[in-house]
Design brief:
Largest sheet: 6 strands, parallel
CATH architecture of the largest domain: 3-Layer(aba) Sandwich
Structural class: alpha/beta
CATH topology of the largest domain: Rossmann fold
Strand order of the largest sheet: 5-2-1-6-7-8
Strand content: 5-15%
Number of domains: 2
Helix content: 25-40%
Order of helices and strands: EHEEEHEHEHEHHEHHEEHHHHHEHHEEHH
Shape: elongated
Oligomer: single chain
Radius of gyration: 25 Å
CATH class of the largest domain: Alpha Beta
Number of helices: 17
């Protein structure tokens, strides 16, 4: 699907189709990083076909409990994990181990603009589905490979998992309580963050390759490694090391470069205090009843506060326990000091800001009636994201897609089903 640039602007009130409308994506990936990219492309309008194993499907279909419940409260076979990354896709079941199945995928790839896969390095070559062989059939194909360690290097053939990569990529070295605190030690992030960020990088790379294809007329191979992405996402922590030569360490919820920027106890719980500049700190001091802190040379500037955090933080903690979380948030928000609660998931979705932004959505589902999902956070004024399909049942769209993309009739589909190819 050509991507047009430099077109005349449409009227401000005209809602146009989603930006990737007409782009065809063949999604051979499973679990999270690849499916996350596929879902994002689908939300942006692409027609994403999820190819799965007959009878089994994506591994995450069985990663429960919890499972989706039907309208009578009974558990279905659809794991909540699968639901988080497969909205707006159509599911096709094809036995890739069979020559006939491989031929079907090659035909689908010839009709596709993008292919996503996260097989081990070289894993698809034996099926004739690697980039070199498919690019020979479809030179315009953008082929995105996601692996743990990339297509090159001494670790290329190792399997890579999010938890492992969080450790190897440095994230766990800066996550968790400090060495002098009870419970100290490396800690992973509470979600598979490396998979998610890799999915985001994959989405960016795919769109860049589609844009470049408009100039060259040719697709290309995208090589994404979870380890590379995790290192890139170390951001300021990596830069602190490269520029300053100091190895970062675990600091709990404290910030290596900003003070106060951490969690603090209140009379009934905890809150986040995120002071970003000296003016905010001075306002906090006034609200806390200690304006003298803002004039103290040990605390007046952020570099001074960082140097004297061991003195300042205990003083702050003694002050914050004097009011409830709600009282602090009301006072600090009124004073323009960034702060907030530490919410559980039920509190997240009950938050009026979250509700106002429509971050919970529901889509019709053949088993559950309606499936609750998290909305896409991208807000486009002229060509918004769209929600067309709930996460699909296994093989729900096999006949529909093969008929639509490849022109197969009922007899051809019946023969493939009889031979257990689909």
């Amino acid at each position: 699907m050509p991507i047009a640039f430099h077109q005349a602007a449409a009227p401000a009130d005209e809602v146009r189709p989603p930006p990737l409308n007409g782009v065809r994506v063949l999604d051979l990936s499973r679990v999270l990083a690849g499916p996350w990219a596929g879902q994002l492309l689908a939300d942006l309008g692409a027609d994403v076909i999820k190819v799965e194993r007959p009878g089994a499907g994506d591994d995450t279909r069985t990663w429960g409990p919890p499972y989706l419940r039907d309208e009578d409260g009974r558990e279905t076979a659809e794991a909540a994990y699968f639901l988080c990354a497969n909205r707006n896709k159509r599911s096709v079941t094809i036995d890739m181990s069979r020559p006939e199945g491989q031929a079907l995928i090659r035909q689908l790839a010839q009709q596709a603009d993008v292919l996503l896969e996260n097989f081990k390095v070289g894993g698809l070559q034996q099926y004739g589905l690697d980039y070199a062989q498919l690019a020979a059939l479809n030179p315009r194909l953008v082929y995105c490979s996601i692996t743990g360690f990339g297509q090159t290097g001494p670790y290329a053939r190792r399997p890579g998992y999010d938890f492992l990569i969080q450790g190897m990529g440095g994230l766990m070295s800066v996550t968790g309580r400090g060495a002098d605190e009870v419970g100290a030690g490396p800690q992973k992030v509470g979600v598979a963050l490396t998979d998610i960020t890799t999915g985001l990088y994959a989405t960016i790379a795919v769109q860049a390759a589609l844009a470049e294809r408009e100039r060259s007329g040719r697709g290309q191979h995208i090589d994404l490694a979870l380890l590379d992405v995790q290192i890139a996402c170390m951001a300021s922590q990596a830069s602190n090391y490269l520029a300053g030569g100091v190895v970062p360490h675990r600091m709990g919820n404290a910030h290596p470069n900003i003070v106060p920027y951490a969690d603090f106890p209140t009379a009934d719980g905890d809150m986040i205090l995120a002071v970003g500049n000296d003016q905010q700190f001075a306002r906090f001091c006034g609200i806390a009843g200690h304006p003298e802190w803002a004039d103290d040379p040990r605390f007046a500037t952020n570099p001074a506060r960082v140097a004297n955090r061991a003195v300042l933080v205990p003083l702050l903690r003694q002050a914050t326990v004097m009011r409830s979380t709600a009282e602090w948030i009301a006072a600090l928000e009124a004073g323009g000091v960034p702060c907030g609660p530490i919410n559980r998931m039920d509190q997240v979705f009950a938050d009026p800001q979250v509700q106002a932004r429509g971050m919970r959505i529901g889509l019709p589902h053949p088993l559950a009636g309606t499936v609750p999902l998290v909305a896409n956070p991208i807000r486009l004024s002229g060509s918004p994201t769209s929600y067309r399909h709930a996460p699909p049942l296994l093989g729900q769209h096999t006949g529909e897609v093969l008929s639509e993309w490849l022109g197969m009739d009922a007899a051809a589909l019946a023969a493939l089903q009889h031979n257990r190819v689909i």
